[in-house]
Specification:
Number of strands: 17
Order of helices and strands: EHEEEEEHEHHEHEEHEEEEHEEHHE
Helix content: 25-40%
Radius of gyration: 20 Å
Largest sheet: 6 strands, antiparallel
């Protein structure tokens, strides 16, 4: 198979995909900046540099770099066009659009029956301050787009909240607030690829943010049948084919769904010791299995 990968050619992830593909498949790293589409010919054309994307068997979206609104919209439209042309895009454009939007992901998870942190989304500082008080005066303010724990701020003081909300309103941000959920500095990441689920525990004893990029450590876990069901249901709630599903065990015994990442990484699971199937992954036995590249 010829598999195009939207991601940095020198990234660890592209290198690991090339290692895994060996001589069986061809991995073609391509850059968003070289993405080009043509309309008006016999068939729509999509290229990235000298790679004809319509001749690839699949395209894996490995990253989604920041860009202007026009750039991001064009990227998503080009991915949708490739999908319409018969190229398997992983993840599908609509799944990426949902998962990159924290509000929409939270809404989809709630609709799918998951417990999620009480959340408020609004435009103005006055609305946000009202929501802050309704949520108990202890909230996490998040950028509606973004990942790896960047831009997350815990706010416990009303005066600080007012200043934070005013600043966000002035830059035209959407104000996204979630009630802080007390936890033990631990969350769970479930990685769903095709018919398998891998799991790890992310632990950070000195920070409520448990992202690996912020210094948390990763431990393999035994993936239970309940985790498999949760991972699969969360993935399906956004329409993804592969996903990183984040679950937060709260101190009060609840387990809340926090995020579905449609461009998930796997480096923490693969290094230093791979999470072996016998310890940390399970087959999904449901008859309606997800499509996957094999």
């Amino acid at each position: 198979m010829r598999i195009a990968v939207l991601g940095a050619a020198r990234s660890w992830y592209v290198g690991d995909l090339q290692r895994a593909a060996g001589a069986r498949h061809t991995i073609l790293p391509v850059d968003y900046r070289e993405l080009r589409a043509e309309v008006g010919g016999t068939t729509p054309a999509f290229q990235a540099g000298d790679v004809d994307l319509t001749c690839c068997d699949a395209l894996l979206v490995r990253s989604m770099p920041a860009g202007s609104l026009e750039q991001v919209v064009f990227r998503m439209n080009a991915l949708a066009g490739l999908e319409h042309a018969g190229v398997q895009v992983v993840n599908p454009p609509r799944a990426i659009e949902i998962a990159v939007d924290k509000y929409l992901t939270t809404a989809k998870l709630s609709q799918a029956g998951f417990q999620v942190p009480p959340t408020a989304v609004c435009h103005t500082a006055a609305q946000a301050l009202e929501s802050y008080l309704d949520l108990g005066g202890d909230v996490v303010v998040k950028p509606i787009f973004g990942g790896e724990g960047r831009g997350l701020t815990r706010v416990l003081d009303e005066g600080v909240a007012h200043r934070v909300f005013q600043a966000l309103q002035q830059i035209g941000a959407v104000l996204y607030l979630q009630k802080f959920i007390p936890h033990a500095g631990v969350d769970l990441r479930l990685l769903v690829i095709g018919a398998r689920v891998w799991g790890m525990r992310r632990r950070h004893p000195h920070d409520w943010r448990t992202n690996i990029s912020r210094g948390a450590t990763a431990e393999p876990i035994e993936v239970t049948a309940e985790m498999v069901e949760q991972a699969r249901r969360a993935m399906q709630s956004v329409g993804a084919l592969i996903a990183g599903v984040d679950l937060l065990p709260a101190r009060d015994g609840r387990c809340l769904a926090i995020e579905v990442n449609a461009v998930p990484g796997w480096r923490a699971m693969a290094h230093p010791d791979p999470c072996t199937p016998s310890r940390s992954s399970r087959d999904l036995t449901s008859s309606s299995s997800s499509r996957s590249i094999s």
